[in-house]
């Protein structure tokens, strides 16, 4: 098949209200760019009418629209990964289906690619999210940068562009759970970030719950760094040294003052604190062990039910 210049990858999960407007605005923007393109939609187990709309888009533009249909919900990053494995463009752009990142901003990313950058990340201008989401995102950005040394101004913005060689390295990694923007940044030789517009969600609700955001950032930190393990090792050494000093102090106090019962509740408080820290440390270790378990099982990362595409020009 004819190789397009740009492949636009869009994961879709229950976005029937946004898809018609997205398709119209996206195709209009890409037609105006004058570059050859393809659009790859991945239906990530949608329970609404999203798949029917995507199939209709394919019928309208069979040469440019391809639809990957999962047989279940495997998550945003696996939906993107499935499209990455099948994208044919020299440049691959990722875009969410909720229209919060306008498709009209894609040419801005392509101009940076044409300047020689291999990864172009977007960061959102005047975010139209809740106060809690903005503050949590800022905190998580700081934690991620301190633990992984991967610098991204806005890790939650999925409007990004990658050169083909970067995408090929990402798909070759074969990891069961990963964070695509961070993985791309770790492979990039000349990354850059640009400011992109951000709009309030026109319809529907965000698919990321608080738990999903926490889960995603656990994957990010444990997938790219061992700093959490090192931090708990150092903390354990400090606690052990402090405990030894405290035991010596209590022993000397016992010899000087004699038996005491007043400090019993203080000891219980210290004990409960250390038990809590120990349980949290086991949780961190469990995260790493869980990643190892997922990798050694070698189960498919996702399952495709059908692909709608035109096989010949």
From TrEMBL:
Residues 7-170 form the Glycosyltransferase 2-like domain. GO terms for molecular function: transaminase activity; undecaprenyl-phosphate 4-deoxy-4-formamido-L-arabinose transferase activity. SUPFAM superfamilies: Nucleotide-diphospho-sugar transferases (SSF53448). Keywords: Aminotransferase, Cell membrane, Glycosyltransferase, Lipopolysaccharide biosynthesis, Membrane, Transferase, Transmembrane, Transmembrane helix. GO terms for cellular component: plasma membrane. It comes from the Bacteria. This is UDP-4-amino-4-deoxy-L-arabinose-oxoglutarate aminotransferase. One of its GO terms (biological process) is lipopolysaccharide biosynthetic process. The chain crosses the membrane at residues 231-252, 264-289.
